[in-house]
Amino acid sequence: MIPRIICFLLILISPFCANAATVTDNGNPAITLVSVGGMFAQGKTAMLYFTSNEPSIEIEGSFQGKDFRAYPYKNKYRAVIGFSIDDPGNEKYLMRITAKDRAGNTSDYYYNVQVKKSWFGKLSFTLKPKIVEMLMPDVIRADWKKIEDVVSRENREKYYSGHFMRPAAGRVSMTFGLEEYINGDESGKHRGLDFANAAGTPIKASNSGIVRLSEYLPAHGNTVVIDHGQGIYTYYAHMKKLIASVGTRVKKGDVVGQMGATGVATGPHLHFAMSLHNLRVDPMQWLKGVVID
Question: Where is the domain boundary, 62, 88, 115?
């Protein structure tokens, strides 16, 4: 067995060499990282494109404590990955990629990835004591458990197509990543994009998929979660009325609810969030077409 040292030097991926990827004549799969896309920055989404010397292989990865998978895309394999807003930016992180062929042979590849720091800003606002009660840790944990029990499941089938559309008319009232201060106390980071408009404004599916959750949650209010396949989910919170039910196959633009102020809200708005392999990423980047098929 003759080991081959694999080295890459691509934009935003710093050079890193690994002995772990051993490709020999016995059929071990070999992959090549041919290009990248998106943004390698806190809270953003990026893509890795691979080619392989064998057909029908499986490519899986691990990065910042999250697992992800690459799926066939045209004549390549594409991994869509996100970067956490909680980890420090301007640092290098180790990414592991494993290729597995149909015979069960595997090869490991390691990349040193530079993640840039993002600036999100801060926002302070006041809530009435009765609403603040809904932000108690046990309430928030229960809400997130409901959502994460859904978005942590990765369906290999792809339901979405084309770009992700804006889910509601209205002004953007809160952007992704803002540090929130409620009644003077730090409350955390805003992990979605808010659209404000009149109560009853139609809320539409940002892309095609299957409704996996449709119910009232104490902090998020009336909430819908849509599975778009391959680890990609969108969810829609604080709605006045739920229209789509669990198990419904929706098309891009179908109405799934109405804008409201249920849960922790100061007025009618939609909290729209993108979840990628159970990591919340900036929805605006998706609405601008970071991932288009």
Answer: 115
Residue 222's closest CA among 203, 250, 207, 209? 203
Q: What is the pLDDT of residues 272-281, one digit of tens each?
A: 999 999 999 9
Amino acid at 193: L
Q: What is the pLDDT of residues 195-212, one digit of tens each?
A: 999 999 999 999 999 999
Residues 184 and 221 in one domain: yes
- pTM for the model: 0.87
- Distance between CA 251 and CA 207 in Å, rounded? 6
